Automatic annotation (TrEMBL):
Belongs to the binding-protein-dependent transport system permease family. CysTW subfamily. InterPro entries: MetI-like (IPR000515), MetI-like_sf (IPR035906). This is Spermidine/putrescine transport system permease protein. The lineage of its organism: Bacteria, Bacillati, Bacillota, Bacilli, Bacillales. The chain crosses the membrane at residues 12-34, 54-78, 90-115, 135-159, 199-218, 238-259. Keywords: Cell membrane, Membrane, Transmembrane, Transmembrane helix, Transport. Residues 58-260 form the ABC transmembrane type-1 domain. It comes from Sporosarcina limicola.
Length: 274
């Protein structure tokens, strides 16, 4: 039975979903970005975005997103590597992923309790004689909590890449006289680079648009593009400027996806690399 005439019908739900929930919202954001406070057409929003205030905000957002991604990668890669060497690796991976299922707001408030002046961390510091420290509302607390929240999403793609790595390639590298560092640099890292890129995508892109953590953990001392969008829509009621920032945020995300996407550099099939 030939189902070719019906194939276009199978794609209708998918196409309708894309149009209604992806293309239409983006088109609406672009439309509002050309409106001023009274609904008149203007290009001032785009001119204002390139002012010193918003340029500094953009640089700050990229800096914090870079820090969060760098620390997440620094801890995620060795963690994923050692997970692949454990006996019950999938169980340990599940235990790492389970906290990501907890509501983000609950985890944020948990850290407020931990880092607060009367929390357990400050209580421990008092016992050691260091006294209470202002941990909340600092860059450290913001980056620390963000890394904690995003690190499972960095571990998972790296773990999958390492788990699929053909172990005979590592044995061959060592048989040829390469030490552990050379084997990692010339064999393991290149063949798992796509997992690293996927991890960077799922961490760096959301980190650009954080807003709730900046309010609750950083006390608005850290302002990101996401925080600016929230303030424009909810505080100043300037939907045009908020939409303009959102347009540039979408462009930044698209550029990052292009930069971190790539074809498979290597895959193990029957002990061969292709």
């Amino acid at each position: 039975m030939n189902n070719k005439p019906l194939r276009p019908l199978y794609t209708l739900p998918y196409a309708a979903w894309i149009i209604l929930f992806v293309i239409a919202p983006i088109a609406l954001i672009v439309y509002y970005s050309f409106l001023d406070l009274v609904g008149n057409f203007t290009l001032d929003n785009y001119r204002n975005f390139f002012s010193s205030v918003y340029l500094k905000l953009t640089i700050s957002s990229f800096w914090y997103a870079f820090l969060i991604t760098a620390f997440a990668l620094l801890f995620a890669y060795p963690t994923a590597y050692f997970l692949t060497k454990t006996k019950h690796k999938y169980l340990w991976l599940l235990l790492i992923i389970i906290p990501s299922w907890i509501n983000l707001l609950l985890k944020t408030y948990a850290f407020i309790g931990l880092f607060g002046l009367y929390g357990p961390i400050n209580a421990f510091l008092e016992l050691t004689g260091l006294g209470k420290q202002q941990i909340l509302f600092t860059d450290f607390s913001f980056v620390f909590v963000s890394v904690y929240i995003f690190i499972p999403f960095m571990i998972l793609p790296i773990f999958n890449s390492l788990d699929k790595l053909n172990p005979t390639l590592i044995d061959a590298s060592r048989d040829l006289g390469a030490n552990s560092w050379t084997t990692f640099r010339r064999v393991i890292w290149p063949l798992t680079l796509n997992g690293v890129k996927s991890g960077i995508q799922v961490v760096f892109i959301p980190a650009l648009s954080l807003f709730m953590i900046t309010r609750l953990i950083a006390g608005n001392k850290v302002i990101t593009l996401g925080t600016a969008i929230e303030q424009q829509f909810l505080v100043t009621q300037n939907w045009g400027m908020g939409s303009t920032i959102a347009v540039f945020l979408i462009l930044f995300m698209f550029i990052i996806m292009l930069m971190t996407s790539g074809k498979e550099r290597g895959a193990s099939i029957n002990g061969k690399v292709k």
